Structures are given as structure tokens and as C-alpha cells.
Amino acid sequence: MSTGKKEPSPPVETLPQAEGTTASPRSVEPAQSQDALDAMLAQAIASRGAAVPADDSASSLPPVGEQRCGLIAIVGKPNVGKSTLLNALVGQKVSITSRKAQTTRHRITGMRTRAATQFVFVDTPGFQTRHGNALNRSLNRTVVGAVNDVDLIVFVVEAGQFNLADAKVLALLPEKTPAILLANKFDLIHRRAEIAPWLRAMQERHNFSEFVPMSANNAKDVERLFGICEKYLPVQPWMYGADELTDRSDRFMAAEIIREKLFRLTGDELPYTSTVVIEKYEEEGNLRRIAATIIVERDGHKGMIIGEKGEKLKRIGTEARHELETLTGGKVFLEIWVKVRSGWADDEARVKTFGYE
Ligand SMILES: Nc1nc2c(ncn2[C@@H]2O[C@H](COP(=O)(O)OP(=O)(O)OP(=O)(O)O)[C@@H](O)[C@H]2O)c(=O)[nH]1
């Protein structure tokens, strides 16, 4: 994990690193033999540079009897790349990302409609195993809720690794739902030969339907993932319009974008227990007037966010405003305040007031 926050020292299987290139995903049915795994890896590497099928967004509505639609939950421990994957699949940022763990705190739905198929992806917070506070209990409830009643689960791990935090998420997966093992950050794996034993070990951990080594930040890999997921989605009418990308409002996105800038522009010394509340969101034609409060737990944290002569807070505001202007296609006036609410993350009522499940 790239975060400074360490998981409890679990047994980690890590592959040594050397020179390498990006591979494309190829899924495999869970194979029993070394040969099958080797063949899959060879295929993944050979398919580098293969043509990407054109995005075939639905321009005319297919008849209801031909529409395919299903829910796909994206789950995994913190920081494995779930939100990066969701954004790549949707083709637009709908879930914020940062190198800090616990960036995603809500169930975020992102849709993509291609030809007759509507993919409804559900991004989830990374399952928390470290602190048992009210905030983390809420995040974990969100994960548990999301893995039930979906058509497919995409279980994301970092390729070549599996530790206690991964195992805790894996234990939540219902046996009845098909699950794909997505070995992400494959670009960081340089000795590919050594991934085969890891994949074999993963086969024994769960009855995965397929194994997909890939990189969420590689467009060709993401493209192929659609084909892999499609066959698990039932023939049924679409749930959303063909052009819809998320079920979240612009107001919600405003809070998330500010929190993303906060997470990205502050160092690891700022505890993860800070959140953003939108106090005002007004639309006047093409103009949005937004007032937001960043909530922190201690006075000392407030100083970290405001920075010397207010520089840090100013930068958070400027970067958030630019992104909100791109998102809304209009002008944005953004005011941000910082307030201390000590102990909020351990107070169930406050956690709810601040918009968590
Ligand atoms: N090298 C590499 N980095 C990646 C890849 N996918 C994601 N990342 C990086 O991994 C970090 C975490 O990504 P996120 O998408 O925020 O991870 P997450 O699983 O949603 O994290 P939580 O919100 O904590 O649950 C970011 O710095 C990403 O840029 C990948 O395929 N390769």
C-alpha cells in the first residue's frame, strides 16, 4: 500500500520487482494446472497492443427484451485501486481517489451503457480492520450491504499480494454470487513468472469465476474488463437512462471533491477523521454558490488545513473550485470554513448527521 498507514502486520506474499511492461487482462476460468495459469499469463502479455473495441454507447434504445443490465460490486481493502477502476469504467470521475487509504466513504454507483448492456458498478469503501470507531463501523456496513444482491462481485487486490485485510473482505463474499479476482496494479509486477504460484494460491482461497490481472489505469485493460463482466449480467431492462453516469448529486460531488483535495494536499499527519459538509448549494443560472465546512477532530488539525497565512486552505479551495467548474460547466463561488468537532468519528449520531450510512 502506498499509504503511510500500515495494516496490522499480516502474512504478505509480495513479488520481487524488476523491469517490465504493461499487460492486458485476460480472464481465466479457475484452472487446476500450472499450464493453464501459464497460458493465461502468456495470453495477457501477448495481447498487449491489441486493438481496443470502439465505445459503442447506445445511440438508439434496444428493445426491452434485448436489454441486459446488472449490478457489479467493486470491493477490496483500502487503497487497492477500486475508485480508480470505477472512474475508468464509467469514463468520468464519479469517485474520488488519493494515495491515502479510506478515501472512499460512501457507496457510489457509476453506470456505463454500451450497446444493449448497462453496467451498474457499485464502488465501496475499503473494508476497515484497524479502528472500531463509529465512522469505520458505518463504512463496513456499506461494504457488507453492497456485496449482497448484486449479479457480480469484482474483488480487487494488488497483484501478487494477499494479507489479512484482503482476507477479511474475501470472507464477506457470499458463495452464491459469482466473483472475479481482479489482480490490479499489474504494471508494478515485473517478474511475471512468479505471479502464477500466487494465482494458484488464490484459487484455493475462494471459488473465483475468473482471474483478471490488469491495471486500472490502463485503458485497454479496462476495455476488456467490460467483455469479461458482461456475460454475468442478466437480460433485463436497464435501470438508468443510457447517458446517466452516477446516481449521486452535484451537491454530493462537491463535498467529495473538496475532501479529495483536502486528502491530497495534506500530509499523512492529518488524521483520516476529517470530513466535509456542504452548508449551502445554490444554483443561479450557470453559477453555483457553494459553502462548505471541513470538520476536524482537534484544534491542531485545523492549523494543518489552514496552513501558513491560510495558504493551504486557499489551495484546497482553488483546486476544488476548478474541478467543480469543469464538472458543472459553469462558474463556481466556493467558500470553505474549518470547524473542530472533537470525537465526531466516534459518535454514531454525528456520523449520520455528516451523511454516512
Ligand atoms: N501503479 C498503479 N497504481 C494504481 C492503479 N490503480 C490505482 N492506483 C493508485 O492506487 C492509489 C489508490 O487508488 P484508489 O482508487 O483511491 O484506491 P481505493 O481502493 O478506492 O482506496 P480506498 O478509498 O481507500 O478504499 C492511487 O494513488 C491510485 O492512483 C494501477 O493499476 N497501477
UniProtKB/TrEMBL annotation:
Subunit structure, as described in the record: Monomer.
Bilayer topology term: Peripheral membrane protein
Bias (Polar residues) ranges: 19-35
GO cellular component, one term: plasma membrane
Originating species: Polaromonas naphthalenivorans (strain CJ2)
Ranges for region G3: 123-126
GO molecular function: GTP binding; GTPase activity; ribosomal small subunit binding; small ribosomal subunit rRNA binding
GO biological process, one term: ribosomal small subunit assembly
Gene that produces this protein: era
Protein name: GTPase Era
